[in-house]
Amino acid sequence: MQNDTEFELFRDNYRRFLKEHVAPYFEQWEEDGIIPRELWYKLGENGFLCVDVPEEYGGYGAPIEYSLMLVQETAYAGFSSLAIAIGGQSELVSPYIQNIGSEEQKQYWLPKMVTGEVVTCIAMTEANAGSDLQAIRTQAIAEDDHYIVDGSKTFISNGIHADLIVLVTKTDPQAKAKGISILLVDAKLDGVKKGRALKKIGLHSQDTAELFFDQVKVPKNALLGAEGRGFTYLMQELPRERLCISMTALGSILGAIELTKEYVLVRKAFGQTLSQMQNTRFVLANAYIKAQAAQAFVDQCADLYSKDQLTVTQVAALKCFITDLQCEVMDQLLQLFGGYGYMQEYPISRLFVDARVQKIYGGTNEIMKEIVARELLGK
Ligand SMILES: Cc1cc2nc3c(=O)[nH]c(=O)nc-3n(C[C@H](O)[C@H](O)[C@H](O)COP(=O)(O)OP(=O)(O)OC[C@H]3O[C@@H](n4cnc5c(N)ncnc54)[C@H](O)[C@@H]3O)c2cc1C
C-alpha cells in the first residue's frame, strides 16, 4: 500500500467499518464503561490493527500515515475512547516490539497483535510515580532463568483487556534511570491481577485499570532489549505515543468543527440561524484557522518521524500545542450549542470531556514545556 488511491480506499474501508461495527453500539459501550473484547477481533479480521507491522509478522508493512490515519478517523467520528485503545496497541506497544524486541518476541507477539488475538497495554505509571518515572517501585529481581516481579501500576489504558503487559520495572531498585528495564509480561502468568475498570470523567468506554504483580515469575527471555536500558527505550519510543495523541487531538478538533457547523446552520435565535451571528462565525472560523495550523504541524512531525528525524523536543511542542488547542476549541464550540452542549445526547459534550485528559497523559503538558524549555535554555 503505497499510493494515494490505495490510501483513500483504505480510509473509506475504515469509515465503513466504523459506521457498521462501532457507531450503532458506541453509546452502549460508553454506558458499560468498556469496549467489548470482540471488537478487537473484528478490527484484526478487517486489517485495522498494527498496519505498519512488516508482512513477515502478519501486518501490511504500511507507512506510518496509514496507521495514524486510523487513529485520526476514529477520533474524527467522535469515538475518542476507541482511538486511544487502538493507539495503545498500534502506536505505543507495537513499535516497542518492532524496534527493540528479539526475533523470538516479534514472531510470538506481533502476529497475534495484528489479528486482535492479543490486546496490549504499556504500564509505566504507579500511584506514587507518574511524571517522575525514575521513582517507580515495581521491581523485577533476577533469579536463575527468570525475574520475580512485585509491584503495582495504575491508570493503565487497555489494562482490563490486556493479554500482554509491557511492564516498566526496576531490575536494580537502588538505581534511578539506569535501573529501569522493560519486560513483556504475559497477563496469564500466576500473580498478575487486574483491578476494577477505573471510573473517569470522560473516555468512558476506554478501559483504564490498576494492575498488580505479586511474586510473578517472568522468564528472562521476556526482557525487552537489554537490562538497565529501559529509560533509554522509553525516550526513544515516547515520540510515537505523543504523535498518536496529537493525531487524536487533530481528529477530534476537525470532527467537532463539522458537528458544530451542522448545528449552527439550523438552530435559530432571534429569528436567524446561529450561523448568521458574527460571534458564531468568528468562533468557527478561528477554530478552523487554528486546526489548519495544527494539521501542518502534525504532518510535519509525522513526516519527520517516518524519516527517523523527529526529536523529543519537537513532538513535545506538538503534543502540548495541539492538546491545549483541543481543550480550548471544545470549550468554545460547546458554548455554541447553548444548554444542549451540556447534554450527554449531544456528541459535543463527549468531545469536551474526552479532551481534558489529553493534556495529562503521555507526559503532562507541564512536562512537555519543561522539555522544550530545557532545549531553549540549555538545561
Ligand atoms: C485516562 C488515563 C489513561 C492513562 N493511560 C496510561 C497508560 O496506558 N500507561 C501508563 O503508564 N500511564 C497512563 N496514564 C498515566 C499518565 O501518564 C499520568 O497520569 C501522567 O503521566 C501524570 O502523572 P501523575 O498522574 O502521577 O501526575 P503527577 O506526576 O503527580 O503530576 C501532578 C501535577 O504536577 C505537575 N508536575 C509534575 N512534575 C512536574 C515538574 N517537574 N514541573 C512542573 N510540573 C510538574 C504535573 O504536570 C501535574 O500537573 C494514564 C492516565 C489517565 C488519566
Give a verbal description of the structure.
By secondary structure, the chain is an alpha+beta fold. β9 and β10 form a beta hairpin. The site of flavin-adenine dinucleotide (FAD) has 21 residues, from β1, β3 and α10.
Please give the alpha-carbon distance between the first and last residues: 43 Å
Bound molecules: flavin-adenine dinucleotide
Rounded to an integer, what's the Rg over CA atoms?
21 Å
Q: Which secondary-structure class do the elements indicate? A: alpha+beta
CATH class type of the largest domain: Mainly Alpha
Query: Spans of 5+ residues with little confidence (pLDDT < 50)?
Result: none
Beta-strand portion reads 15-25%
CATH architecture of the largest domain: Up-down Bundle
Q: Would you summarize the structure shown here?
A:
This protein has 379 residues and is of the alpha+beta class.
Defining traits:
alpha+beta; oxidoreductase; Acyl-[acyl-carrier-protein] dehydrogenase MbtN; binds flavin-adenine dinucleotide; Acyl-CoA_dehydrogenase; about 375 residues; 4-stranded mixed β-sheet; 10 helices; Butyryl-CoA Dehydrogenase, subunit A, domain 3; globular; 4-stranded antiparallel β-sheet; Butyryl-CoA Dehydrogenase, subunit A, domain 2; flavoprotein; about 55% helix
Tell me the layout of helices and strands.
Elements: H1 4-32, H2 37-45, H3 64-76, H4 80-100, H5 103-115, E1 120-123, E2 139-143, E3 146-157, E4 164-170, E5 180-186, E6 192-197, E7 208-219, E8 223-224, H6 230-266, E9 268-269, E10 272-273, H7 278-306, H8 312-336, H9 347-356, H10 365-377
Parallel strand pairs: 1-4
Antiparallel strand pairs: 2-3, 3-7, 4-5, 5-8, 6-7, 9-10
Helix pairs in contact: 1-3, 3-4, 3-6, 4-5, 4-6, 6-7, 6-8, 6-9, 7-8, 8-9, 8-10
The structure holds flavin-adenine dinucleotide (FAD).
GO biological process, one term: fatty acid beta-oxidation using acyl-CoA dehydrogenase
Family: Belongs to the acyl-CoA dehydrogenase family.
Keywords: FAD, Flavoprotein, Oxidoreductase
